[in-house]
Amino acid sequence: MKERSRLGAASVLLVAVVALVFGGVGGAVVGSRMTQTGIVQATAQTAPSSNPAGNPVESSTPLSWVEVARRAGPAVVTIVNQQQPQSDIFGNVQPGAKAEGSGFAIDKKGDIVTNNHVVEGAQTLTVVFSDGRKVSAQLVRSDPLTDLAVIKVSAKITTTLTFGDSNNLQPGEPVLAIGSALGEYRNTVTSGIVSGLGRAITEPTGTVLQNMVQTDAPINQGNSGGPLLNEHGQVIGVNTAITRGAQASDPFGVSQNVVAEGLGFAIPSSTVKNVASRLVQNKAPAFLGVTYHPINQQDSTFYSLPVGAYVNTVASGSPAAKAGIRPRDVITRVDGQKLVGTVQLEQVIAEHVPGQTAVLQVWRSGKTITIKVKLGSKPHS
Question: Is the alpha carbon torsion for 169, 142, 287, 30 positive or negative?
Answer without folding.
Answer: positive
